[in-house]
Amino acid sequence: MTARILDGRAVSAAMLERVRREVAEFVDAYDRTPTLVTVLVGDDPASHTYVRMKANRCAKVGMDSRRVELDATISTETLVSRLRELSADAGVDGILLQHPVPDHIDERAAFEAIDPSKDVDGVTRTSFATMAFDEGGFRSATPGGIMALLNAYEVPLAGKHAVVVGRSPILGKPVGMLLLARDATVTYCHSRTADLADRLAEADVVVAAVGRPEMIRGDWIKPGAVVVDAGYADNTGDVEYAAAAEKASFITPVPGGVGPMTIATLLAQTVGAARDHEATR
Question: Does the pTM exceed 0.90?
Fold first, then answer.
C-alpha cells in the first residue's frame, strides 16, 4: 500500500480563493478592509519567517495586516497591556500572538489578554471552551486546518479510533476535541506514554503533534490508517514519513501538509471576525 497524499497546499489554495472573494464582498459592503495584527516578541528567525508568510498571504487575499514587534526583554505586564490595547482598537479584527514567546513571559496570561472576538488563532480559554462544547467561536488554527484538510478528502471519522500524540493547549488538546465532535473515539498520548507503539497500532487516525522529529516510527502505523503530521523541524515531521507512507491510506507531507492549512484557517477566521464585528456595531 502507498498512501494518498493529503495535499495541504492545494486545499489551502482553494480556501484562500474563497477568502479572497469574501474579503472583496466585505469591502464592498462595509467600505473597509479586514485587518489582522500579528504580535512578535523577540528575534526568533523562524517566528519572523512565519509572520512574513502570514503577511504575504493577507496581501494576496486583499486583507490588511499590521505587524507589532516587541523587544525580547519586555515583561508579561507590558505585553498584556499591548494586547489589551489592540483588543480595544475598533480597526483590528484579528490578533495573533506569534508562538513561542521568550521563556520569561507568561504565555497563558498573554493569550488571555486577547479579546475572544478577535482570537482568530483560537488560543484563549474562551475559544477552547466554545469549540469543545460545539458552540461556535474560533477554532485553534492548526487543529481547524487539520479538520478542513480531512474534510476536503472526505476522510471518514465517525466510529474511528483516533490517537492524538501531543497535549499542547493550542494543538493536541483542541484537535482531540474536534475529532470527538465528529464521533471519533479519541485517545491522547504524549512523549511519556509508555506503550505508544501499542496505542498507535490500534489507531485508524493518527495526529502527530508532539514536536519530536521522527519520534513515531513507520512500522508502528496500522495498515490503512490516516496519518496527519503536525510536527515540523528542519523539513522533518514527527512521523518517519517514508515508512509510514507504505502502510497508511492517507498521509500529510512535511512540509506542504498541515502548515498551509493553518494560515488559510487563520485568514478565514479573520474575515469571519470582521463580519461579526460589523454585525454588532
Answer: yes
Cβ-based neighbours of 225, under 8 Å, separated by 6 or more: 203, 204, 205, 206, 247, 248, 249
Q: Is 167 among the annotated ligand-binding positions?
A: yes
Q: How far is CA 244 from CA 16, 66, 126, 165, 205, in A?
A: 30, 40, 36, 15, 12
Averaged pLDDT, groups of 10, the chain, 281 residues long: 94 98 98 97 88 94 97 97 98 96 97 98 97 91 98 98 97 97 97 94 97 95 98 91 97 96 97 96 81
Q: Which fold has domain 141-260?
A: Rossmann fold (3.40.50)
> Is residue 168 part of an annotated ligand binding site?
yes
Q: Where are the domains of the chain?
A: 32-115, 141-260
CA separation for the pair 249, 112 (Å, rounded): 39
Beta-carbon contacts of 69 under 8 Å, excluding residues fewer than 6 positions away, are 40
| Of residues 125, 75, 124, the one with CA closest to residue 101 | 75
d(C-alpha 273, C-alpha 96), whole Å: 13
32-115 and 141-260 have identical folds: yes
pLDDT tens, residue by residue, 113-126: 999 999 999 999 99
User: Looking at the domain 32-115, which fold is it?
Assistant: Rossmann fold (3.40.50)
* Active-site annotation, residues: 54, 98, 121
Report residue 200 CA to chain centroid gap: 23
